[in-house]
Give the backbone structure.
Amino acid sequence: MKIAVISDIHGNFVALEAVLKDVKERGCDRLVCLGDLVTLGPQPVQVLEAVMEENCDCIMGNHDQALLSPDKWNELQIYSMVQPDLKWAMQHLDDRHYKFLSSFLPYKAVDMYDNYQILFCHGSPKSNIQVMFPDMDVKMLDEMCDGFSAQAIVNGHLHCQFKELAGKRLYINPGSVGMPFKIPPGPGIAPVMHHWAEYATLSISPSGKTLAEKIQVELHRVKYDFSELKQILNASSLPGKSWWLEQMP
Ligand SMILES: [Fe+2]
């Protein structure tokens, strides 16, 4: 079985279209989306409609939840700098889109075989604002997953790809489809975008002896047409489009 995992599309349909084409070419059996679909980018509706079509499991990212709960922006870490972009995206959504967003799950645990389980989430199994970093202390990772028995945790939110065996668990981040970062943003660190789209595939192999053999992870980078995205941004009234235009190759 091969599972494709996409995350953090952030309203970039040009990138999503290229990734979905690549997913189909690789012959995946299942697609899981780890959230943050709509906001920040110039194509919120196109992204939502495309993911609706896929009929896949969707996890509730902090940005998805923010669209449903504008009174919780502070606790969802929607900072003032990007709030105009969320308001702009909300102007484009209708009742059908909100109903779809409401159906997103806090996490999804998928049983594999031999008591193996993979858990898909946005930040951590417990919270869509917690962040898992590569090289993080195992104790901290264990704490974030305390009470969950999955041997593999697949999470988004960071916008950086990684796969790491830490303690008894495998941690996987497929990166970001629409807004992959060279360095994770932080205090005083402005995010800089890679010029590709990111996602991951997990190939499940019952005959594997070790965890890494049972769940084989491939991190993919897909090139797409940035001149098309640039044209769309130039024609858009998106408040934060100057940041995107600065990121263009
Ligand atoms: Fe995100």
About this structure: The longest helix spans residues 13-25. The first strand starts at residue 2 and ends at 6. The chain is about 30% helix and 20% strand. The two ends are 36 Å apart (CA to CA).
